[in-house]
Amino acid sequence: MRRCGLLYTIIISMLLSGCGAQRGIYANFRPIEQLRPVETLGYDAGPELTAAVGKTEDTPALTLTARGRSIPDAVDALQARTDRGALFFAHARFVLLGQRAATQGLGALLDYLERDIHMRLDTELFLLDCEAQRAMTAGEADFDLTAAVEAAKRESEAQACGLVLDFRETALALSECGAAPVMLLRCRFPEDGPPELLPDGCGVLRRGVLAGTLERPLAEILGMCLGRAGTLTRTLGSAALLCRGSGTVELERAEARAPAFRLRLEVSAAVDEARDPIVPEELEAALKARLEADAALLVARLGEMDADLLGLRQTLRLGGVAEPEPGWLGRADFAIEAEVTLDRSFDLAQPLELDGGGRDA
Q: Which own/partner contact pairs does 352-359 have at CB distance under 8 Å and 24+ positions apart?
């Protein structure tokens, strides 16, 4: 018995110390100075990966691109392109999705992000309107791509369409609703400057495949319904309005074939700028009509894409419909109403005469 206990002790000691085949728990240990942190990862069809590698005390920042028969092969090919330290993917904050790859399907990438122990579940996803490799390699050597993505993220979060989801949130939405939004960045390539990444609406992933995109006004309505706080702007005539609000969806008729819902928007607005005199009641009515029209177009587009971004299937289940019939989303009826409150901090005895947000003298 003592000999068996001694033998077990020796075996466990060897495994923990990494002796023999170097398969112990510390076998993959690397000193931090030997790691090259990947800050942003681009994914294109192929698969092709592009890595924006941050600088360290001894090494400059660089951008690497590699292809492979699979994502692990492409990762290995990326690693082979650097001779100074091991690539460290656990530092990656953003994944940029090339449009062609998203159209072909992101199943392999989503599976890799879920299974690979080095990727973080809070890595945020962005859709580009071009190839990720082009956007990530177009700038000069001193162009900080990760900082540009971070700036675009902050801008989008300040808007009501701040639909920046990480992998965990995206996977959950795809699992529960079969669809998920992904923030869309428009890429611009000026001749005399670095690339520009501009938030502009969102893409719609349906079962891991890009089903289409939503323009910014529609994405803003979607953001309000999903509780993504932010400020949206609407221009009505000469008046520019800043609006904040929320949206809710209620079940009106529980049917498996053609259910009915009520979408309510509650919005408070303030006049940011107006060149001509305005009447508050007329401005409220015009804004109400505009928001209701945007919401109607949103639900119509989602029906065309068969993308349940509003979580309507879960609402149906709570209403007693376990499984709606195929095509139910396109046949669903929506009653849409917006309640708009305009800031009345001015004397309303006279029409408002505004110039740049202030009152005329």
A: 352/271, 352/274, 352/277, 352/278, 352/279, 352/280, 353/274, 353/277, 354/239, 354/271, 354/273, 354/274, 354/275, 354/278, 355/273, 355/274, 355/275, 356/273, 357/271, 357/272, 357/273
Element (H, E) at 133: helix 132-137
Residues of the chain with pLDDT under 50: 10-12, 14-15, 17-28, 346-361
Rounded Cα–Cα distance for residues 190 and 193 (Å) = 5
pLDDT digit string, tens, across residues 269-279: 988 888 888 78
CB atoms within 10 A of CB 268: 14
* pLDDT value at residue 91: 84
Q: What is the 3-state secondary structure (H, E, C) of 42-84?
A: EEECCCEEEEEECCCCCCCCEEEEEECCCHHHHHHHHHHCCCC
For residue 67, what pLDDT is reported? 94
What confidence score (pLDDT) does residue 24 get? 38
**Domain boundary assignment for the chain:** 33-214, 216-361
- Residue 121: per-residue pLDDT: 86
Topology at the third CATH level for domain 216-361:
GMP Synthetase; Chain A, domain 3 (3.30.300)
User: What tokens were used for 359?
Assistant: 């009152």
Per the DSSP assignment, residues forming a β-bridge with 95 are 41, 125
Which residues are bridge partners to 265 per DSSP?
247, 338
